[in-house]
Write a structure and sequence with these properties.
single chain, alpha/beta, TIM Barrel, 8-stranded parallel β-barrel, 42% helix, globular
């Protein structure tokens, strides 16, 4: 059963949290081995499965404490044909892996959801290649064919929606969107950007969103930005521009380092959780639709809680006086 597929609750003005950087948390804080950065590999063992449950329970507790919604993102960012094969799984394992990941989230939701904390199950799609480098780029049609099996698995496992994280070129984002349309699934597209606020291809975020919308007839439910620090993209967000209304989610990195610097780093840069929270609050002043808040590389529950604490008063104020949401934050970016 996918109770939210036809009416995603995060399309309201309510605050929804996501988790943080699952891979960096499991590797650096929990000491777990994730070959090729693939969290789904933990599903193969009982201890790995339990580690993932414990990870998600942390965010369930956080969302219930603050009585906000929660997006449960499946551990399938790497669970596409190329990466599954690279890790030694067969092509026949692809559907089973993705459906098992969604089933895990159903169990969590069944045990924990409340009226104050709706929990939306999202099937996570990652890029075919490297998250930072758009090499061996596909056409939109090739990308649709490539991602269709994974997205169909999400549909059949009763995920509420599909979220494509760390999209680094527009044709793959279009392909994912078309595949979700073919499966009658709502879809969210999350682009990553470099320190200049542009996609790794050099295309502006504004142009990328406009291109996806034009080709797919505005099919994505909304857009997100992930795997970049707020200081990398805040300057491209000019208040009042209509395209910004399409951005509803941010999952930022803890570190201000560039993608190239992060790739070369052998230690975790977890930044400053409180400072990151205030930077999200400043983003909310620029992105009026922003209500899906979480983290990416280097972030964990400390960062997501700091983000929640910094931003939740804005949502409370909006309930009593919507005009308060337009006031400028004291934090500049």
């Amino acid at each position: 059963m996918a109770p939210y597929r036809n009416h995603l609750p995060q399309l309201s003005n309510a605050l929804f949290l996501t988790d943080g950087g699952i891979e960096t948390t499991l590797i650096f804080r929990e000491g777990l081995d994730l070959p090729e950065f693939a969290a789904f590999d933990l599903l193969k063992s009982e201890t790995g499965y339990e580690a993932l449950l414990n990870y998600f329970r942390t965010y369930v507790t956080l969302a219930k404490t603050y009585q906000v919604g929660l997006i449960l993102e499946s551990v399938t960012w790497r669970a596409n044909p190329d990466w599954v094969t690279k890790l030694g799984y067969s092509s026949d394992d692809l559907v089973e892996i993705n459906q098992k990941a969604i089933a895990q989230l159903h169990n969590i939701r069944q045990a924990s959801e409340t009226a104050q904390t709706p929990m939306v199950i999202s099937g996570c799609v990652g890029p075919r290649g490297d998250g930072y480098i758009p090499a061996n780029a596909m056409t939109a049609q090739q990308a649709q064919a490539y991602h269709q099996t994974q997205i169909n698995a999400f549909r059949d496992a009763d995920a509420d929606l599909v979220t494509a994280l760390t999209m680094n070129y527009v044709e793959e984002a279009i392909g994912v969107t078309l595949a979700a349309q073919a499966a009658n699934m709502p879809v969210v597209i999350s682009f990553t950007v470099e320190t200049d606020g542009c996609l790794p291809t050099g295309q502006t975020l504004k142009e990328a969103i406009a291109q996806v919308d034009a080709v797919t007839n505005n099919a994505p439910a909304y857009y997100m930005i992930n795997c970049a620090h707020p200081t990398h993209f805040a300057n491209i967000l000019t208040p009042g521009e209509a395209w910004l209304e399409r951005i509803r989610g941010v999952r930022a990195n803890a570190s201000t380092k560039s993608h190239a610097e992060l790739n070369e780093s052998e230690t975790l840069d977890d930044g400053n959780p409180a400072e990151l929270g205030h930077q999200y609050r400043a983003l909310k002043a620029k992105l009026k639709s922003l209500n899906v808040l979480g983290g990416c590389c280097g972030t964990d529950d400390r960062h997501v809680e700091a983000i929640c604490q910094a931003c939740l008063p804005l949502f409370w104020a909006h309930l009593s006086n919507p005009s308060l949401l337009t006031t400028s934050s004291s934090v500049s970016l």
